[in-house]
Amino acid sequence: MSPHPYTEDQLVEQPAIALLAELGWATVSALDEVLGVEGTLGRETKSEAVLVARLRAALTRLNPDVPPVGITGAIDQLIADRSAMSVVLRTAKSTLC
Known about the structure:
Radius of gyration: 19 Å
Largest sheet: none
Oligomer: single chain
């Protein structure tokens, strides 16, 4: 049986992937991703949303005069957990206190 045509995958993900490929981006399906440094995307866990090794390489290429400590600092800022900054979370905490 074929998948239902009205799914997020069919309506959003596949057209977005096709558009990115058309624009020259490399695409990969991570449905059967192999985890680890030598894995499909280089992630240790599926909860890692940022591909740090690729981000580091891009930041270094785009900012050749920035020392490694600066690149690491930028990455730390980009991947920091911002969930505590949520207005909803802060409101919920203040009502509980």
